[in-house]
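Structure record:
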Amino acid sequence: MKKVLIVLMMVCFSFTAFAEIRLGGLFAVTGPASFLGNPEKLTVEMLVDQMNAAGGINGEKIKLFIYDTQGREDRAISYFKRLATKDKVIAVLGPSRTGCALAIKDLASKFKIPLIACAASAKIVNPVYKFIFKTPQSDIHVAEKLFDTLKSKGKTRVALISAQSGYGATGREAVLENAERFGIEIIADEKFMDTDKDMTSQLAKIKAKKPDAVICWAAGAAPAIVARNAHALEMTDIYMTQGVASKKFIELAGDAANGIKLTAGRLIVADKLSYSDKFKTMLMKYKNDYESKFGGAVSVFGGHAYDAFGLFAIAFAKSGNNSEKLAEELQQIKGFMGTAGEFNMTAEDHTGLSKDSFIIAEIKNGEFVPAE
């Protein structure tokens, strides 16, 4: 009888162990990139709570293991190894920054753990790795959307100023490599460090060349300094990217933010979208859920995590607790309506978005609005 009880206890324990979905997260919750990682962490925690309250995925509850990379590559590497070997997660959402995502690509492949990054560089998914995916639109899509917009306005002599960071460097490449096929001439190419406190010198050089428009490719606090310096030099026609698509940028830039245009997902103007827009209902639910729970404004960066979790949940529902099958299901997802756009994954495209995922937004009176 005792042996029977022991066997039954072992069976019950085994069932309990496999009835838990162990999901990892790597986000820059603190440090200079916390504007990216903190809303990502909060979003995933909120979505997991909602999913578990509704019964989980196929009746299995999710257990989260989230670590703070502080935006550092060494911490991303260390914590990914921990997630793989100690926490034994089925997948990892994040990290927040391009450099961190690139640093752990090989590890994800080595451990055969699907990684759904929340960073933008096309280099994360190009070349394609079976286990590597990402949710933000790629820098090539940003460049194409900017060029389309500038060309439609007759602005063909364009200056570039970019951060010397993973995000800035790959964005700069996308601009320089693709401008000519859109009929855009890059007449200036200036750089700055994320830690620089003044970019007046670079902007003065740009102004002297009388460009039709200026593209600033950066994220974090630095582009707010660019905005203030450009405002002081009475420069206009400044275009930025989704790297500044948060209220924090407007707070840091102050009045200098007004008039700046940027590529962005629809989330930052969700309440201003037409009710006929197919994304509006989903975006407003996420926005209202997040803001009522946490108080602060929703951001596109949290949206990247919203999309990563959504993709994971869809794929896991079909794959079950098998990481290789999960990766296969991820690359077959079609028609997923995320905050960044409609995702249509393929074996050759592990982002599944296009330049049409973007809108051009403008900052007016301290608010994001659809550009006219």
User: Anything to note?
Assistant: Residues 4-18 have pLDDT under 50 and may be disordered.
